[in-house]
Amino acid sequence: QVHLQESGPGLVKPSQTLSLTCSVSGGSIGNRDYYWSWIRQPPGKGPEWIGHIYYSGSAYYNPSLKSRLVLSVDTSKNQFSLKLTSVTAADTAIYYCARMFYSYYYFDSWGQGTLVTVSS
Amino acid sequence: SYVLTQSPSVSVAPGQTARISCGGDNIGSRSVHWYQQKPGQAPVVVVHDDTDRPSGIPERFSGSNSGNTATLTISRIEAGDEADYFCQVWDSSSDHVVFGGGTKLTVL
What's the CA gap between B44 and A66, in Å, rounded? Predict the structure, then answer.
């Protein structure tokens, strides 16, 4: 049973960079059957896909975030990461990492989520 | 970009059947996935690829997809089914994931 766990600061100042890491256990991030994804959910709202990355480093980004976003993967640590620059209050959300089936494009495993608040 | 539309809320009495819809342009040509999210928890997939149920999901959960509407049907509603439900597709024309806005299911 794969387990995903997000980690990173819970508070980020406006204009700074939001950095999160997802640690994967119980399965290899090098498994070719999956993409590794980030999804966020502002309080009281629906989920918003941020992007996903393959073990090879090939990544897909939400066009609305693409100019501020970098996803990366570290197969040696079984982790993948997100960096979102120039954050504003609109980036305040619960951030989830999740595993997505390659070719089927649905999320079969999710982390518990971490609340990131953008505030001075 | 592709848009998925869900009704904000549905209310159903215990033992009855809930139908939660997800509208989109020719959505019947896409694979639709459904998630259940209870307060304070991450979403859980309950139906994927229109009609498939992951192991551990009760048979009471079923899906259909045709034309411009996909539907999640939950039969014999229980109090524990009260949650938000989201539909999701992959938009191959733009290479990104799309979520619906969600439907809050209230068990009366």
Answer: 26
Q: Token match 């998630």: residue?
A: B35
H or E element, residue A7? strand A3-7
- Mean pLDDT, rounded, for A26-41: 96
What is the helix (H) or strand (E) element at residue A101, kind and residue range? strand A93-101
DSSP letter, residue B17 = -
- Taking the CA of residue A71 as centre, how many other CA atoms within 13 Å lie in the half-sphere pointing to its CB? 25
Non-local (6+) Cβ contacts of B94 within 8 A are A63, B1, B2
Residue whose tokens read 């024309």:
B93
Nearest to A106 among B1, B42, B45 (CB): B45
- B40 Rama class: left (phi>0) / alpha (psi -120 to 50) / beta: left
Residue A116, amino acid: V
Contacts of B95 in chain A (CB under 8 A): 60
Alpha-carbon distance of B34 to A1, in angstroms, equals 21
Q: With cut-offs at 50, 70 and 90, classify the pLDDT of residue B1.
A: confident
Residue A71 vs residue B1, higher pLDDT = A71
CA atoms lying within 13 Å on the CB side of residue A81: 14
Question: Is there a contact between B32 and B63 (Cβ–Cβ < 8 Å)?
Answer: yes
**Position B13: which residue type?**
A
Distance CA A95, CA A82 (A): 10
B63 at A interface, C-beta within 8 A: no
CB count within 10 Å of CB B65 equals 23
